[in-house]
């Protein structure tokens, strides 16, 4: 039985998505970018918290609602402190909350990502199969075929061919998975034994490099 190389790809989008929505100053739909800063408003014992976005064309401000009319006592002191100092981790968590963003406009993904690859203790040169497990630091709207193209160093046509021939299998196996956004915990298994040796070597190196 041939050895199987298991690799974890830790995928991190470098910038939060844009939100395309109506801009009153531009009189049309434009992409709004997250400023990574919060705005608050307190009235008596109630507080509102927004994440500030700006129009990419004219710098018009739009505020993404985070908390609305919430009692001051319902907010943990450390959470309120994070908002007050524009904590970057908290801002990123809300800026990548696609469920919330989709309520207010159309999401536009930005292409920049980082892929950090780590392997188990198996000799890559002897591996007859590769299993890639995806670990997402933040939700990512990048299509799986585009991620594999970049990560493995092959074309999208080659990714599609590997999938169509059964050399590349996905788990969970869902319809149009290659065209769908990547999912945390998703795994990609590639059987190298039936492939041309040059392509197999490219995939081995790409999975790790």
What keywords describe this structure?
209 residues; alpha+beta; 6 helices; elongated; 2 domains
Q: Describe the main β-sheet briefly.
A: 5 strands, mixed
> How many domains is the backbone divided into?
2
In the sheet with the most strands, the strands line up as 7-1-8-10-9
Main structural class? alpha+beta
Give the fraction of residues assigned to helices.
10-25%
Low-confidence region ranges = none
Task: Provide a count of the helices.
Answer: 6
Instruction: Tell me how many strands there are.
Output: 10
Query: Outline, from the CA principal axes?
Result: elongated
Mean pLDDT, to the nearest integer, reads: 92
**Gyration radius, to the nearest Å?**
22 Å
Distance between the terminal alpha carbons, to the nearest Å? 25 Å
Question: What is the beta-strand fraction?
Answer: 35-45%
SSE pattern: EEEEEHHHEEEHHEEH
Write the layout of secondary structure elements.
Layout: E1 3-13, E2 18-23, E3 28-43, E4 46-55, E5 61-71, H1 77-84, H2 88-95, H3 98-102, E6 106-108, E7 113-119, E8 127-136, H4 144-152, H5 156-165, E9 168-171, E10 187-191, H6 197-208
Parallel strand pairs: 1-8
Antiparallel strand pairs: 1-7, 2-3, 2-6, 3-4, 4-5, 8-10, 9-10
């Amino acid at each position: 039985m041939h050895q199987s190389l298991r690799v974890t790809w830790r995928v991190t989008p470098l910038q939060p998505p844009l939100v395309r929505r109506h801009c009153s100053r531009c009189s049309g739909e434009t992409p709004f970018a997250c400023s990574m800063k919060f705005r608050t408003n307190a009235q008596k014992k109630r507080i509102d918290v927004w994440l500030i976005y700006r129009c990419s064309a004219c710098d018009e401000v739009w505020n993404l609602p985070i908390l609305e009319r919430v009692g001051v006592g319902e907010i943990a002191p450390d959470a309120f402190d994070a908002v007050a100092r524009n904590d970057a981790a908290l801002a990123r968590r809300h800026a990548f909350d696609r469920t919330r963003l989709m309520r207010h406009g159309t999401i536009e993904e930005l292409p920049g990502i980082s892929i950090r690859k780590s392997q188990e203790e198996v000799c890559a040169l002897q591996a007859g199969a590769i299993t890639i497990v995806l670990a997402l630091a933040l939700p990512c709207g990048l299509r799986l075929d585009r991620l594999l193209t970049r990560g493995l160093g092959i074309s999208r046509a080659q990714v599609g061919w590997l999938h169509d021939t059964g050399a590349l299998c996905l788990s969970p196996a869902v319809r149009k998975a290659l065209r769908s956004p990547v999912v945390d915990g998703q795994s990609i298994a590639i059987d190298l034994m039936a492939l041309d040796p040059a392509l197999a070597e490219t995939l081995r190196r790409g999975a790790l490099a």
